[in-house]
Amino acid sequence: MSDKPKSHGRLSISASQQPRDLMTDTPRLKGAWTAKIITLFPEVFPGTLGASLTGKALQQGLWSLETIDLRPFGEGKHRNVDDTPYGGGAGMVLRPDVVSKALDQAAIGTQGKRWPMIYLSPRGKPFTQERAQDWADADGITLLCGRFEGVDERVLQEYDVEEVSLGDFVLTGGEIAAQALIDATVRLIPRVLGNQASTEDESFQHGLLEHPQYTKPKLWRDRDIPDVLLSGHHGEIAKWQKAMAERLTKQRRPDLWRAYCDANNRDPDEDQEL
Length: 274
Description:
Order of helices and strands: EHEEEHEHEHEHHH
Strand order of the largest sheet: 2-1-6-5-7
Helix content: 25-40%
Shape: elongated
Strand content: 5-15%
Structural class: alpha/beta
CATH class of the largest domain: Alpha Beta
């Protein structure tokens, strides 16, 4: 018999501190986009990511999920991962020596690849559809879920970790935000949604909010469908949809409207034709 190792085809084999039976039982195909999550609560994943189309794509190996439990990297008998902040103040701060070990673990297999390293933080740059597309085009992503009062600044600087915010509010931890960011990103990976064209005509894709959508029944509680949508005139329908998208964006998101007008040499105060 030959000592030559067997080929695993498209399967990707990688080392991990976690026993195999604690890992997800989904296939991990070579080259599949991968999300690595550093968290104190690995049991909450995949959560909603395991449902619907993202869950189906996970089962098919179109993307993969790897959780890295922060607790085993803790210090002392009780595996402490945090300590009191220098300078005083309420709460606790995740230790840099603990977080760095988890980041090193997450870096295994990412060398030479485009692999953003993100810390979910309310002080970070706002998450956008454009950012989701950029991450979907990468090889994978590492997300550090914060807890308590945050993470020691030195480890963020040492590893050049980018801070990203889901919005102007505070959560008890980064796990919910991580699932939201991953969902927004994974759905942009080819074949995940089945019909990739569905991502090309939705909110933010062209700098505008999406136009209103309607379906059966035609009449519901004395509310009818706009006549143009029943006309069969695709040119007029497209014109109406764009005008409605512009009107909604102007009304609800003045910031997006100004940016859209600047990019298209439009007067932001002009009326949208219907």
